[in-house]
Design a protein that fits this description.
The complex is a heterodimer of chains A (328) and B (372). Chain A is 42% helix and 19% strand. Chain A has 328 residues and is α/β, with parallel strands linked by helices. Chain A has 3 domains: 170 residues, Cytidine Deaminase, domain 2 (3-Layer(aba) Sandwich); 72 residues; 39 residues. In chain A, strand 3 and strand 4 form a beta hairpin. Chain B is an alpha/beta fold and 372 residues long. Chain B folds into 2 domains: 190 residues, 3-Layer(aba) Sandwich (Cytidine Deaminase, domain 2); 115 residues. Chain B has an 8-stranded mixed sheet with strand order 7-6-5-4-2-3-1-8. In chain B, strand 2 and strand 3 form a beta hairpin. Classes of the chains: A alpha/beta (328), B alpha/beta (372). The interface between A and B is large, with 106 and 118 residues. Strand 12 of chain A pairs antiparallel with strand 8 of chain B. Chain A: This is Eukaryotic translation initiation factor 3 subunit F. Chain A: Keywords: Cytoplasm, Initiation factor, Protein biosynthesis. Chain A: It comes from Ascobolus immersus RN42. Chain A: Belongs to the eIF-3 subunit F family. Chain A: It is found in: Cytoplasm.
Chain lengths: 328, 372
Amino acid sequence: MASQDSSSFLHLSRPLAAALSATQTSTAPVNVIIQPQALFSILDHSLRRNAEQERVIGTLLGVRSEDGSEVEIRNCFAVGHNESQEQVEVDMDYHKEMLALHLKANPKEVLVGWYATSPELNTFSALIQNFYASQGDGTYPHPAIHLTLSTQPGKDIAINTYISAPVGVTADRASDSCLFLPVPHEIRYQDAEKAGLETIASAKDSEDRNAPVYNDVFALEKAVQDTLDMIERVSNYVGQVIDGDIAPNNTLGRFLLSTLALAPKVSPADLERMFNTHIQDVLLVAYLANTIRTQIDLSNRLALHAFAKEEPKPTTTPATTTTAPASK
Amino acid sequence: MADKVATPPTGPLKGVRVDALVVMKITKHCASSHPTLVTGQLLGLEQDNYLHVTHSFAFPTVEAQPDNSFEGSDKTTSSNAAAPRAKSSAWYQTQMVDCLKLINVDANVVGWYQSANLGSFLNKDLVENQFFYQTNTTYNERTVVLVHDVAKSAQGSLGLRAFRLTKEFIAARKEDKFTSESLVKHKLTYQNILEEIPVTIHNSHLVTSFVHQLSTPPKPLPAPSLAHLLQQVHSQPSALPAPLYPNFDSLELAIDPFLEKTAENLLESIETHHTELNNTQYHQRQLAREQAKIAAWQVKRKAENVSRAATKQELLPEDEWQKLFKLPQEPSRLESLLNSRQIEQYAKQTDGFAATVSAKMFGVYGGLQAEM
């Protein structure tokens, strides 16, 4: 629980005045879902900050569930700002312009909050938070999400999400103070992003931080290799349990048993038949596709040849190899 | 960084290095509006003949007109596909680039991206857009198009490919003539319209550390919580966070939807090919007919001249046929070229798919047989 005012007030989340309470209809905890794209964007922005800047901020975009209890952060963009001991300056025109541009390309993604690349919450955080949660340009009537992501060298990248409650003794003070309430968050990615993330993750151990984009056969080989590794791990564990090196775990055993039971039982005749029909389908389509390719190649060569005849030198077309489907 | 000028072109592009952020941005944008075609801009810079793509943004999609719902979707797709070279999005592009420049993004256009579905991206729009980019003077000539295949990525391996138009095609397109003659002249075949450039993925240091952090759990799980975890697996298997890696989608055995779709696409392309063939044949017949007419006219004129010469009359000019007859224009071969390339693409894709799928099937067969 982080409140920025270090003076000896008692901070309570309570409605101050009618006007203020109206700006924050709900301070109920929300569940925040972060898509990796937004995180990568923030990390990139953090790398591109000006040398003297401690932290950078930006606007979070995303979608809200209908009852407002779940917020999915899907996108974000950076906003320039200047911070000194006494004051903070956020480029609001820039924020508005970018928001408009983003809305044009992605009308579904609306303003949900803002991010900062330092774990610290201070008075300026409260000011900015109040701006993002305000009526009109802000997220009103929904609470604005504040996401902090620390990018300090040598430490883990810590992600925290907050919503805020109004706090302060007078209406004047309320504008530059608020109570940040931590809310749970999770990183969730979609199926379509899995392949991309996998490729990104495959580069994590390479020294130059590069990874080639694999083709299908390589991907298959890798997946088979990974599966073999996992089987190896499990059989090692089972072997150790049998040898008595590790205390057996009933739940784990049951889980393994039910996994093994998942293997389908088919009669050899059925298996043979299913296998043959399927493999024939695949090979036939591949064969036909290759025949078509040869035909197309032939027709193109003929067309060119007919015209090239008059010329002294025939055109040279790169030789193509047409591979017949491998018959195994 | 923002005003860093790309090094002057010294050799052919050796590769495209795409930042993790751009990969995520593209996959998310393409997948969220699948199967509608979407496009966007790529920003970055060039270094040592490698194109570094470090940022991207989406182009606005065109909303379907509510009143003509029949043509709506079709129209949207075609106008979306043309967005990168459309005048209306030029404003958007400059605005966005200007804005991004302020936050230290490499504000240098290095190309554009588009989504595709099972390799169906070779069409006139792609070629025209890329031609626009490669010949536009405001951009660097060295631009690429990244094609993200959404359906292929869903199968387990990231379908991201980079293309550029070849010099041959640019030369032919500059003359804007795609007759057989010009194809021969430029040595342009369907195989050398586009050249593919190898793509690599690049992570920043922060992303690397972040990915490491994601894949290593904070502390090893003690035994009781393992049991608890397993209980969770039983009650709701989807609730468990799936690891980033490895990804077992490529072990999927369902082959029918993919085969069906590819075969369908292939048939469609063949149909187009057939239409193009008919057009060419029609043109050939027309040409033959006209040429026969001209020959007949020339014979007639010659006979006339002979008789005129006999009667000492003035000879009639023999090249007057050029004014009287007009040879039909040869239809553009561009469409059929692209279509051929598309068919080749489908065929190769099927080939690759057959290879992996038969390997998987033999694996399953072997595994099940060994059990019996």
